[in-house]
TrEMBL record:
Residues 209-343 form the Guanylate cyclase domain. It holds the Pfam family Guanylate_cyc. This is Adenylate/guanylate cyclase domain-containing protein. InterPro entries: A/G_cyclase, Adenylyl/Guanylyl_Cyclase_3/4, Nucleotide_cyclase. It comes from the Bacteria. It comes from Bradyrhizobium agreste.
Length: 396
């Protein structure tokens, strides 16, 4: 190893690896710099645990002459035989290095190392990547060089670990913030918050299609079932809607008990109002089918469910609302209030989907006029529409 070139790699990391814009680019650049400094590297992997409700971690795998592979690992991996026999499990749990030389019989206990040897690898080492917050992550290094890594090579790998950990932690923290904001406030709102829109009263007006739904009979359901069962039902019920909403360009803003508020922005990045509202209606139909198919066994009974969703289109105020330093990034305005009132009408009419006159005019479809209804808080009665394809069902 060339010590001066190795120091340049360390300095590059300490300076923030600014030549790369994306993690995959940084990793490729990092590996090429190490090779130029004399490290006989053939394969490099970095494994970062994440703070995400569904994803245990992300991995980036570089091989000489190939694009960086990016993957995500779900929590189920922790119970798999693959993880139980992986050298990375020991690195994660014990924070120690694991070496796997081709001439070491001990390496045979790790199927992965045997697989690497079958591809021509001569040496493998997995090294902990500790973050300042105390969390443990890992890297793996593989060579095809005859005789494996030298003592100088291993020393060089250890020398780059501290600066690699620092820049990796910075990138990971940024991504964790993005994922948490996406999980709890939605992608569009999260991007605005990260962009600095964090002051109370900092908000914008935008046109959007509004989705407001709730589960029929939820109060009675909560009264007769254990709380844990109710939570499981709600999670599966919301799954029926969230996938459809996000799949058609919407953003879920809030869960309110069994209620769900979502918006489908109408702007130059999404499309015109007619196109957006057509996607909203398609999402409502998909959700209706998913909820109707939902069947959850509870004791000797199979629970079935119905829900109602109101669709409206209008201008909303979108931004930070709250008291003191506790804020909520949400939307308000008469259009949201009207959608909430219309949602209550779905149950009275035995309908799954109802739309305001404004939505029905924008979304050209076979609508059936259901009549005019007085709406609390609004001076004029509102004309309401339902899908001609739906048969009213009055809940007992």
């Amino acid at each position: 190893m060339n010590s001066s070139e190795l120091q340049r790699v360390c300095n590059w990391l300490i300076d923030g690896a600014w030549s790369a814009q994306e993690p995959a680019e940084m990793i490729a650049d990092f590996c090429e710099r190490l090779i130029a400094a004399g490290l006989p590297l053939w394969r490099f992997g970095i494994f970062i645990r994440t703070l995400h409700p569904e994803v245990f971690g992300r991995n980036f795998i570089w091989r000489q002459g190939e694009e960086v592979e990016i993957g995500a690992v779900e929590f189920e991996i922790l119970d798999s035989p693959q993880f139980a026999q992986s050298p990375l499990r020991i690195v994660f749990e014990q924070r120690i290095e694991i070496r796997g030389r081709i001439d070491d019989p001990e390496s045979e206990r790790f199927p992965f190392i045997k697989d690497m040897q079958a591809e021509g690898a001569t040496d493998y080492i997995a090294v902990p990547l500790p973050f300042l917050d105390g969390s443990g992550h890992a890297t793996s290094w593989v060579t095809r060089h005859p005789g494996g890594f030298s003592d100088d090579d291993i020393a060089a790998i250890r020398a780059v670990m501290a600066p690699l950990a620092r820049v990796s932690e910075i990138i990971s923290l940024r991504r964790t913030a993005e994922m948490l904001l996406d999980t709890y406030v939605g992608n569009r709102a999260g991007a605005r918050i990260l962009g600095g829109q964090i002051r109370r009263g900092h908000n914008d007006t935008m046109q959007a299609a509004i989705w407001l739904s709730d589960l029929r009979g939820f109060t009675a359901l909560s009264d007769r079932l254990p709380a844990e069962t109710v939570v499981e039902i709600l999670n599966q019920y919301f799954d029926c809607q969230v996938a459809a909403i996000r799949g058609h360009g919407g953003e879920v803003l809030k869960f309110m008990g069994d209620g769900l508020l979502a918006v489908f922005p109408i702007d130059e990045y999404v499309g015109d109002a007619t196109h957006v509202c057509a996607r909203v209606l398609e999402a409502a139909r998909e959700s209706r089918a998913s909820v109707e198919a939902l069947a959850i066994p509870v004791g000797d009974v199979v629970e079935r469910f119905r829900f109602g969703v109101a669709l409206h289109v209008g201008n909303i105020l979108y931004g930070n609302i709250g008291g003191g330093n506790r804020l909520d990034f949400t939307c308000i305005g008469p259009a949201v209030n009207l959608a909430a009132r219309l949602e209550k009408i779905t149950g009275r009419l035995g309908r799954t989907v109802v739309a305001s006159e404004g939505f029905a005019k924008v979304c050209r479809h076979d609508w059936h006029e259901l009549g005019e209804f007085p709406i609390a808080g609004f001076s004029k009665a509102q004309r309401v529409y339902g899908l001609a394809e739906e048969t009213p069902v009055v809940m007992a």
